[in-house]
Input
Amino acid sequence: MTTTTALGPDAPRPLGPRGRGGPARRRGRRSAAEARAGLLLSLPFVLLFAVFIAWPVVQSMFMSFTDMRISDIRSPFAVNFVGLDNYLTAFRDPVFRRAAANTGVFVLIGVPLTIAAGLAAAVALDRGIGRLRGVFRMGFYTPVITSIVAVAVVWRFLLQAENGLVNTVLGWVGIDGPNWLGDERTALLSLIVMAVWRNFGTSMVIFLAGLQAVDRGLHEAAALDGAGAWQRFRHITLPSIRPTMLFVLVTTSIGYLQFFEEPFVMTSGGPLNATISASMYTYNQFGFGNYGVAGAMAYLTFVVIGIVTLAQFRLMREK
Amino acid sequence: MLDRRRPVLTYIVLTVFLLLVITPFVWMILGSLKTQGELLRVPPTWLPEEPTGDNFRRLFERPFGLYFRNSTVVALAVTLGNLFFSSMFGYALAHLDFPLKRLLFVLVLVCLMIPGLVTFIPQYVLVVNLGLANTIPALILPFLVQPFSVFLMRQFFLGLPRELLEAGRIDGVGEIAIFFRIYLPLAGPAFATLGILTFLGSWNNFLWPLVVSSDESTYTLPVALALISTGQNQTDYGLLLAGATLIVLPILVVFLFFQRHFIQGIASSGIK
Output
């Protein structure tokens, strides 16, 4: 991508596909007014953006190379540079490594499940039924719009060992359900299931829009030639929704790599760090006042997000 | 269509799936109407045996009216701010040519990818140094500008014909007035989508208000509920479920009314 260098408002520049029409000799005067209007309309956003987003991004990078602590909060520049120490601290910290591993598990299991559930729901709604479509779509989307705090309260109640609904239902078929959130072996799994429940609605909605691009005629022709539903899905539907698939894959992965709220409100990272995530541990470091270390950990997550996103673009493009 | 049996089977599978998905909500609302004794019973009951409003009464013995108001004020301010700032900027990016335009747009796109925790600590330091900790503006300011909103508005304005702009110029309408008088009145659908999405995000926002508010007077609903659910009342399920219901129900009602805009908006952000 080319960035704009010192181009004056009157300098000739490519206008893109929607180039301005009109007589060329009036363009110069018009451009000045246009440039002024453009800047004026952008100014409020850009100012707030600079203060509350762009500057913090830079400052946090700076912070990650310093020994900044909570005691430096009033004088954030009176700190010492420590080079890569904070990054090394993060790598050496066994809890951070555990948190990174948990996050990896969460992404590797959670992302495919979320995409599969969303795609299955979208295909069923797109092909199978006409009436009631809105009702189903809304029902599946409801978890997405719900506050995580409310969700946590309800799910903790559902997952209780003694009289939770889940274990009660399992009891009907003779299964003695575990203490889902209290057991090291099932806690992360429970959070993954909850995250899939909470997020598949988003991918469903996007897939539903993407499925409009699928050629129905092709489907019918293939069906007449004897192609089964699975074959048609595999060879017609899937290739047609590649761009949508990429979008859902990337956005879901970015979201899940920052996995935070579920363990924060459900388990506080326990039991025995079984559910602590990279973002949550980063937040804990902030809570302990280790701002430099927290900054380094946040940037590590950012780097991983960047790499994963690029890799996904590559993979999806090659085939 | 080609196969007549299919729809019936699809309906059955979808219905079972739907019941599974909405069970937590049903369980929440039913539970909020049960007495504490009934909530602790093994095995649990489905319908409340003696429905009671007691949990909600106890909820409002705490300042939940105030928290509800805080949540509403913050969400409305954030929503209006987003509509205002990002429609102006989005329009400029879509239809006007001005210095630094490309650079600014690329910056906004890059920020879409940056994890929230990267900006979190500096934002906190900033708010503390501005003397805004424990105030309502602290809950609003950092969310007034969101890269996603600009992206959405830009895409929307790109979809509106450029001829409107040309016609306005020919009629001698000023550049700024062209935006406010010609394009803005057409932005209804985009405003509906963005407005609902932003309101929802703000209403459900949790981490930032939790960190910035340490005084009851600025608590929002999720903060208040989170603090109760980890404090001494953590086994008072009646109270907690009533609180959860109070957070979820208004959103469900809004969603019921606007779901079409909502879902189309999200879909379009993914397609374009």
User: Anything to note?
Assistant: Chain B touches chain A through 104 residues (CB under 8 Å). Chain B has a mean pLDDT of 87. The radius of gyration of chain B is 23 Å. Residues 142 and 224 of chain B are 21 Å apart (CA to CA).
